[in-house]
Every structure is written in structure tokens, then in C-alpha cells.
């Protein structure tokens, strides 16, 4: 798994053989809850590992200027198709966000299951990329696996809350960390996760 997470062919295979377990075809329920509850205003936003684009399109529909990065050509083909069908502009990029250096940077980021995979291969590169991607005081929603339930073969990689905090609190304030259940296709298991609303600390 550690090496596969950075391999585009690995992710294309998941979508071709799918449906991928995480690909419900709908925007993340937790994203809509957090954006509404915390009144996150439309801004320049990025989704890390946007997949087939449902959450990025949901943000664009609400006035966010969205860029989505993903390694899977198959997933982004669907994402672009669905954005066009909705009459929305989303900047979907077939590239690794680990190499991105945008200007201007983003004020909001979304990570629905990317962090818990990428950290297995290169945790330092993940946080280094965030340093380049994000504006000072940027906020973000990170959805990740939760070790309060045993890791399942078909579920997300899991973390203890203490490990989660230790990794993020070096450069971010954790506004709220709480358990939630991942969305799933009808009849499928809804795995336990962590919902983390974070804010980058301003260097100034």
C-alpha cells in the first residue's frame, strides 16, 4: 500500500474495476455539514485527491473557486464530465498535489481520505505540499480513518487521535476533532473516521 498510493495505475485500476469503495457518487455529507455549521465562505479552494469530483463540484456550486488534484485519469474524466453537465467550472488537474506550487495559494482545502493514505508513503512530503498550497491562516477539513475501530481490509487506514494530533499540531490549530461515519453505497459498511477542522498557523 505504501508505494501504491503514489502510483496513478493503482488508482485507475480501482475506478475501472469499481465501484471503488469510497466513490459514492455524492459529495461528502461531512463536508456539507461543516461548511454550513462553521459558515465557511466561498473562497479559492483545493481538494487533495478529488477522485470523481462530487465534493469539488458541490463546493463550486456554492461559489467556491475550486481546483482538484488526482492521479487517476479515469476518475478525472468523470469529474470533468459531471462538472460540464452541471454548467460549472472546476479546475481538475491530473497531477500529484505533492508537486504543486500554486499562486495565489488556497484559503480552504478538503482532504477526504488522501492524508491517511499518503502519510504511509511520505508524510513529510504531504505537509511540505500543504505549506506551498495554503495561504496563511487557511482552513481545511480532513477526513481520515479512526483507530477506535479495528482496521478492515476494505476500509481506510486508521489513526489514533493522539497520532493525528501529534502530526497536525506542529503547524495547524485543530479547531475540532470528532468521530464520524464515512458515507457508503447502499448496504455497504460505514466505517468510523475522524473529522478534523484545522487552521494553518500564520507565520507572522
How would you characterize the overall build of this protein?
Helix content is 33%, strand content 27%. Strands 1, 2, 3, 4, 5, 6, 7 and 8 form an eight-stranded mixed sheet that branches. The longest helix has 19 residues, at 115-133. The chain has 204 residues and is of the alpha/beta class. The mean pLDDT is 93. It has six helices and eight strands, in the order ααβαβαββαββαββ. It starts with 7 loop residues before the first helix and ends with a strand. It has one domain (4-200): Vaccinia Virus protein VP39 (Rossmann fold, 3-Layer(aba) Sandwich). The protein has helices at 8-17, 29-37, 54-61, 73-85, 115-133, 161-168; strands at residues 44-48, 65-70, 91-94, 106-112, 134-146, 158-159, 172-181, 192-200.
CATH architecture field: 3-Layer(aba) Sandwich
Strand content: 25-35%
Round the Cα radius of gyration to an integer and report it. 16 Å
Overall pLDDT metric: 93
Structural class: alpha/beta
Total domains: 1
List the helices and strands and how they pair.
Layout: H1 8-17, H2 29-37, E1 44-48, H3 54-61, E2 65-70, H4 73-85, E3 91-94, E4 106-112, H5 115-133, E5 134-146, E6 158-159, H6 161-168, E7 172-181, E8 192-200
Parallel strand pairs: 1-2, 1-4, 2-3, 4-5, 5-6
Antiparallel strand pairs: 5-8, 7-8
Amino acid at each position: 500500500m505504501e508505494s501504491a498510493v503514489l502510483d496513478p495505475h493503482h488508482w485507475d485500476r480501482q475506478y475501472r474495476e469499481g465501484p471503488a469503495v469510497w466513490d459514492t457518487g455524492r459529495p461528502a455529507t461531512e463536508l456539507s455539514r461543516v461548511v454550513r455549521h462553521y459558515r465557511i465562505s466561498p473562497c479559492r479552494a483545493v481538494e487533495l485527491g478529488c477522485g470523481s469530483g462530487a465534493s469539488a463540484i458541490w463546493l463550486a456550486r456554492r461559489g467556491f473557486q475550486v481546483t482538484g488534484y488526482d492521479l487517476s485519469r479515469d476518475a478525472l474524466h468523470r469529474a470533468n464530465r459531471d462538472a460540464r453537465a452541471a454548467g460549472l467550472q472546476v479546475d481538475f488537474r491530473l497531477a500529484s498535489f505533492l508537486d504543486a506550487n500554486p499562486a495565489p495559494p488556497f484559503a480552504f482545502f478538503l482532504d477526504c481520505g488522501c492524508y491517511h493514505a499518503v502519510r504511509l508513503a511520505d508524510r513529510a512530503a504531504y505537509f511540505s505540499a500543504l505549506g506551498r498550497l495554503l495561504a496563511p491562516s487557511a482552513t481545511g477539513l480532513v477526513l481520515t480513518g479512526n483507530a477506535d475501530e479495528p482496521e478492515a481490509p476494505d476500509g481506510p487506514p486508521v489513526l489514533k487521535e493522539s497520532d493525528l494530533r501529534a502530526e497536525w499540531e506542529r503547524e495547524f490549530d485543530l479547531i475540532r476533532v470528532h468521530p464520524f461515519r464515512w458515507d457508503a453505497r447502499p448496504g455497504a459498511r460505514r466505517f468510523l473516521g475522524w473529522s478534523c477542522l484545522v487552521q494553518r498557523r500564520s507565520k507572522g
